[in-house]
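ARCHIVE CARD
Drawer: 12
Card no.: 0347
Subject: one protein chain, sequence and derived structure
Cross-reference: see card 0346
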Amino acid sequence: MAGDEPAGGRGPAGGLGRRERDILALERRGFTGPGAKERAIREELGLSPVRYYQLLNALLDDIRALAHDPVTVNRLRRIRDARRAER
């Protein structure tokens, strides 16, 4: 419902905006075939995969995202930290 969000994209009372909630919802889903996630990113969110991952990475550091979906955010933070440690 876009009517309950200010123009800045943030949800009611300073919560996550629709796009941020949609990104976290997409991350909760499992994708089977190669390219399925990238296709969903383009078709459902209207973003390029590169832009999607930029937004997702910033979202992982947002305390509002942690409050909204702690299981997904913490899982993705662990994956991100493990990948950084490998470098």
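Annotation on reverse: The radius of gyration is 14 Å. Confidence is low (pLDDT under 50) at residues 1-8.
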